[in-house]
Design goal:
By secondary structure, the protein is mainly β. It has no helices and six strands. The protein is globular.
């Protein structure tokens, strides 16, 4: 067994601005840092489950006709295959865990 340590400044960056942190076979951690308000993120559906935790800022999460406001200290869950969309309201920083890992097998592309 080996401990995996990934420093934020050395973490690979995804095409949507996310930083890929530690990843195992079943779960991975990523960071969204200082996402700025602007156009709504496109609605999407992914084949992985996502849980997140807001460190700073605010965003709306729209999922299956529901809407929740995410602010510092809030956590959320997006089930696999659920149609969802984020709207950034104030510079937003959050950590997410994805299962299975989003960055493998093209799961995070689109």
């Amino acid at each position: 067994m080996t401990i995996a340590k990934i420093s934020q400044d050395q973490a690979p960056q995804g095409q949507n601005g996310q930083r890929y942190l530690a990843a195992g076979v079943q779960v991975a951690l990523r960071l969204w840092e200082n996402e700025l308000p602007g156009d709504d993120k496109p609605a999407t559906s992914r084949d992985y489950e996502t849980v997140g935790y807001v460190l700073s800022g605010q965003a709306e999460l729209h999922l299956d006709g529901q809407q929740v406001l995410l602010k510092p200290g809030d956590a959320w869950l997006v089930p696999a295959h659920a149609q969802h969309q984020y709207r950034i309201l104030a510079p937003f920083t959050a950590v997410e865990a994805t299962s299975p890992p989003a960055q493998y097998q093209g799961r995070d592309l689109s």
